[in-house]
Amino acid sequence: MSKKAFQDSYSAEFSHCYGCGRDNPHGLQLKSYWLNDEDKTHTIAHFTPKPYHTGGVPNNAYGGLIASLLDCHGTASAAAAAYETQGRKMGSTPVLRFVTASLSIDFLRPTPIGEELTLCGKVTQLKDRKATITLSLSAGNMLCATGTMTAVRLKSE
Ligand SMILES: CCCCCCCCCCCCCCCC(=O)SCCNC(=O)CCNC(=O)[C@H](O)C(C)(C)COP(=O)(O)OP(=O)(O)OC[C@H]1O[C@@H](n2cnc3c(N)ncnc32)[C@H](O)[C@@H]1OP(=O)(O)O
């Protein structure tokens, strides 16, 4: 995908996150996008787990990996929605950066390794510094996990 991901607009100091930092060679380097140019209410990301992302059973992904993916997709979705609401280009200053305050996940079924996963997000509420995001992770048409996140925008200082 040649489009610019939300995480590509993070400044250098915020680009070392294990889950989505483009400058972390050991990390997952997740990339999140709007679902499409017309729909700036839903977000999407893809990730294919490697064999070493196993939770112990060879073909199933580690739950912490799933949490990491939802974590980074959720905070990126919150930031993108906040910029969109203000009618601003993502990455423009003052920076709108969100961290996870709470994340709850339902692991519905084992998540396969070696298959491309699709992460979806929707910011259902955005109020002052607090965002609520609903999240899902699927393999093909199989819904493997859902999540709800509260993300809080960092104070500028
Ligand atoms: C490690 C940090 C790095 C920073 C560098 C920047 C990173 C750049 C982004 C990079 C992208 C990658 C991101 C990956 C995602 C992570 O993995 S982030 C790491 C995991 N998360 C953390 O470490 C966060 C730790 N917690 C905190 O720092 C603080 O508790 C928080 C979340 C910033 C909130 O503190 P605060 O600013 O004092 O918030 P406060 O003013 O009390 O509350 C604001 C609002 O949020 C609500 N709220 C606060 N906490 C909660 C909660 N736990 N549950 C529900 N609501 C809450 C309050 O009720 C309030 O709501 P309203 O009253 O406005 O309705």
Automatic annotation (TrEMBL):
<comment type="similarity">
    <text>Belongs to the THEM4/THEM5 thioesterase family.</text>
</comment>
<keyword id="KW-0966">Cell projection</keyword>
<dbReference type="InterPro" id="IPR052365">
    <property type="entry name" value="THEM4/THEM5_acyl-CoA_thioest"/>
</dbReference>
<dbReference type="GO" id="GO:0005737">
    <property type="term" value="C:cytoplasm"/>
</dbReference>
<keyword id="KW-0053">Apoptosis</keyword>
<keyword id="KW-0443">Lipid metabolism</keyword>
<keyword id="KW-0963">Cytoplasm</keyword>
<keyword id="KW-1003">Cell membrane</keyword>
<dbReference type="InterPro" id="IPR006683">
    <property type="entry name" value="Thioestr_dom"/>
</dbReference>
<feature type="domain" description="Thioesterase">
    <location>
        <begin position="60"/>
        <end position="140"/>
    </location>
</feature>
<keyword id="KW-0378">Hydrolase</keyword>
<dbReference type="GO" id="GO:0016790">
    <property type="term" value="F:thiolester hydrolase activity"/>
</dbReference>
<dbReference type="Pfam" id="PF03061">
    <property type="entry name" value="4HBT"/>
</dbReference>
<keyword id="KW-0276">Fatty acid metabolism</keyword>
<keyword id="KW-0809">Transit peptide</keyword>
<dbReference type="GO" id="GO:0016020">
    <property type="term" value="C:membrane"/>
</dbReference>
<dbReference type="GO" id="GO:0006631">
    <property type="term" value="P:fatty acid metabolic process"/>
</dbReference>
<protein>
    <recommendedName>
        <fullName>Acyl-coenzyme A thioesterase THEM4</fullName>
        <ecNumber>3.1.2.2</ecNumber>
    </recommendedName>
</protein>
<dbReference type="InterPro" id="IPR029069">
    <property type="entry name" value="HotDog_dom_sf"/>
</dbReference>
<keyword id="KW-0472">Membrane</keyword>
